[in-house]
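S.,

Sequence below, as promised.
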Amino acid sequence: MTEHNTESTDGHDFRRRTVLEIAGGAGATIGLLGASTGSGAAQPDDEHGQNRNRRCYSLSSDNPYFPLQVGQQSVLQGTDDEGVTVRVQVTVFDETEDVAGITTRVFEEREWESEAEDPTFPDDFDLIEVSENYAAQTCDGTVWYFGEELLVFDGEPVENGGADVGAWRADDPASAPGILMTTWPVVGSRWQQEVAPEAALDEATIVEAGLAVDLENDDSDTFEDCIRVFEWNPIEGQTGPPSPLPDPLPEDVPNSWGDEKIFAPGVGIIVDEDVELVQFSEG
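The prediction came back faster than expected:
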């Protein structure tokens, strides 16, 4: 297991600069047909637009922007606007879950918070949320999302898998798989991440590509060819970035755009709103 430690004791601000913007990214839309950017994605064969050919699915993802290898772990940490330190840990388990007729890989997300001035993990942190998520990659490289089960929410154990607080499965009535990450990082691409009308309808779009991201106080860790993504939830009244995207992008984006995230090749998420990568272990 390879350790990539970017821990910083002086804070977690980051600097980023655009070195390349991928050409041809004029508002391509990615829906439940796979990645519809004209690059030959596998076509669906059921009413939900999902390809049910089991031979087309893989439990391990080699999508550079959303790798999923057993044993892989990412830890992100930072301080929000209210001075609360947030820590997020994502771990890929050697476990599977059958959802909607597909065997999926299980990965867990844990979130802690601390109001201490200079917190030490784990002593000064309270566990806030634990979720199990289900994903599988199709042969074209798209990482599909088959749902999540909440085990802890708002610091309390959850009953019934958390269906009342946003949990969902692709085999629930009226639900279907969404997309966690497309194969082609084209600026302007949009896709639906969660397809659960009663619980979650999150969407995402790429607003910048080819970014070089430096983590504060760690000059050796420059992540090249990163993509900047906004994820939003229409159920909460968010609309996401406009299409077509404004040129140039505003320095201060409105809250309606949703949550800002940055993904690096070979690692996955390195920035999620107020938190950024402090530790990465390959599977």
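Residues 3-281 form one domain.

Coffee later?
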